[in-house]
């Protein structure tokens, strides 16, 4: 289950809460009963290996854009296991 960071808009109290995706967001501060706000920070995701950069899966004569190359790479990756599984 993910951990969400909350901060009170009234008193500034900050805390973390472990909640399921289906749980409603917390709305009341446990310290002063003020309104809470979710805090968003950077996530710890790294993309390792080939295929994540614009130049990884392109030939020099290709005129496609980065967005279409990324879409083609993701659809190709999803289609490959289905084709090999048949």
Question: Quick gist of this model?
Answer:
Residues 58-86 have a biased composition (Low complexity). This protein is 23% helix and 17% strand.
Q: Runs with pLDDT <50, length 5+?
A: none
| Gross morphology | elongated
Class derived from helix and strand content = alpha+beta
What integer is the average pLDDT? 74
Helix content: 10-25%
Q: Going across the biggest sheet, name each strand in turn.
A: 2-1-3
Rg from C-alpha positions? Answer: 22 Å
Distance between the termini: 34 Å
The biggest beta sheet, please? Answer: 3 strands, antiparallel
Total of helices: 1
Protein name: FmdB family transcriptional regulator
Domain Putative regulatory protein FmdB zinc ribbon: 1-41
Region (Disordered): 55-86
Pfam family, one: Zn_ribbon_8
Q: How would you portray this structure in words?
A:
The chain is an alpha+beta fold. It has a domain of 37 residues. The chain is built from one helix and three strands; from the N terminus they run E-E-E-H. Strands 2-1-3 form a three-stranded antiparallel β-sheet, with no helix packed on it. Strand 1 and strand 2 form a beta hairpin. It is elongated and about 60 Å long.
Mind sketching the topology for me?
Blueprint: E1 3-8, E2 14-18, E3 36-39, H1 66-85
Antiparallel strand pairs: 1-2, 1-3
């Amino acid at each position: 289950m993910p951990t969400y960071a909350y901060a009170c808009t009234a008193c500034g109290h900050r805390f973390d809460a472990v909640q399921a995706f289906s749980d409603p967001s917390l709305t009341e501060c446990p310290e002063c009963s003020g309104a809470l706000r979710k805090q968003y920070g950077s996530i710890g995701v790294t993309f390792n290996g080939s295929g994540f950069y614009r130049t990884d899966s392109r030939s020099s004569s290709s005129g496609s854009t980065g967005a279409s190359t990324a879409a083609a790479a993701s659809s190709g990756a999803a289609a490959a296991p289905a084709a090999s599984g048949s």
